[in-house]
Structure formats: structure tokens, C-alpha cells
Write a structure and sequence with these properties.
heterodimer; A: 80 residues; mainly alpha; 88% helix; B: 95 residues; elongated
């Protein structure tokens, strides 16, 4: 049987997979970058659920934040 | 179906999506995004397997922390190469 706790895990996992697919199929580059950042934040929540607090903080700050900033800066430079 | 098994399956699915993206997408920045999605899938399998048992195993956590930092460094290198290639192509068009 699927318990109440596991439903949260399944929703988080499905959300991460869906945002990954949408990120790679998006037409606009800016949209793809925003979907990539939101996937990073969903994965952060998944790692809090798994008890990995240190990894969750690093992913939110470095994986989603810093990588997102780098990608947006690159997009700006490519559009000039 | 346990929590660790569910997240392992999602990690493998994310790795597959990223691998498909690397092979199928022509746009270079989106290829870099796909490589990052691959990495997230690998990290998810690691953390899911570390969470089984009474208390979490911290060796995979340390490895994943290192992996996140290395992934950001690799992404920054790849993006700077993309910018350089773009600048050189613009220069070639001008001449």
C-alpha cells in the first residue's frame, strides 16, 4: 500500500522528472533555464525528505543559485 | 515500495532523460543543461541508497557535496567556452 508519506516522495520525484523533460523540450532558452532552476529546488526538497540536510543546502545555494546565475549571464552575452 | 527505492527509480529516470538530451539536442547550452540533469540523477541514486538503515550514511553525502561543486566548475568552464566560440564566430562574420 502507498502511505501518506510516500505520496509526497512520489509527487516530488514526478515533479523533478516533469520539469527536467520540460526544460529540455522548451523552445526559449530563458524558459529552459528557469525550469532547470525549479528542478534544482524540487530536488533540494527531495533531499530534505531523505535526511541529507547538508547536501540540500549545497544544492540550493550552488546547484540552483550559482548555476542559474551563470546560465543567465551566458544567455545575456549570447544575445548581445 | 519504500522511499529509497522510489527515489532510486526517479534518479535513474533523470539520468536517462539527461543522456537522451545530450545525444539528441543540437543547442549547446541545452546540452550543458542535459549533462547537469544527468548529474542530478546520479546524485539522487547515491543519496537514496545512503538513507537506508537506522541513521544516514555520511560518506555518500560527502561525495555528493564534492560532486555538486565539481559539476558547477565544469558547467562554468563549458559556458565560458560557449561564449568564446560565439565571440570568435561573430568576429569571423565581421571580417
Amino acid at each position: 500500500m502507498i502511505g501518506g508519506e510516500l505520496i509526497i516522495d512520489l509527487l516530488l520525484g514526478c515533479g523533478a522528472v516533469m520539469t527536467a523533460v520540460l526544460c529540455l523540450t522548451a523552445k526559449d532558452l530563458f524558459q529552459a533555464i528557469l525550469l532547470f532552476i525549479s528542478m534544482g529546488l524540487l530536488v533540494t526538497l527531495a533531499w530534505v525528505r531523505l535526511g541529507a540536510w547538508d547536501v540540500a543546502i549545497a544544492e540550493a545555494a550552488i546547484g540552483a543559485g550559482l548555476t542559474g546565475a551563470l546560465l543567465i549571464a551566458t544567455r545575456r552575452q549570447l544575445n548581445q | 515500495m519504500t522511499q529509497a527505492l522510489a527515489y532510486s527509480v526517479f534518479g535513474i529516470i533523470l539520468f536517462g532523460i539527461g543522456l537522451f538530451g545530450v545525444l539528441a539536442i543540437a543547442h549547446v547550452v541545452k546540452k550543458i543543461l542535459a549533462i547537469n540533469i544527468c548529474g542530478v540523477g546520479v546524485f539522487m541514486v547515491f543519496i537514496a541508497n545512503a538513507s537506508t538503515g537506522a541513521s544516514p550514511d555520511f560518506v555518500p553525502h560527502a561525495m555528493v557535496l564534492t560532486g555538486i561543486v565539481v559539476a558547477v566548475a565544469g558547467t562554468a568552464l563549458a559556458l565560458s567556452l560557449v561564449c568564446r566560440i560565439n565571440a570568435l564566430e561573430k568576429q569571423k562574420d565581421d571580417v
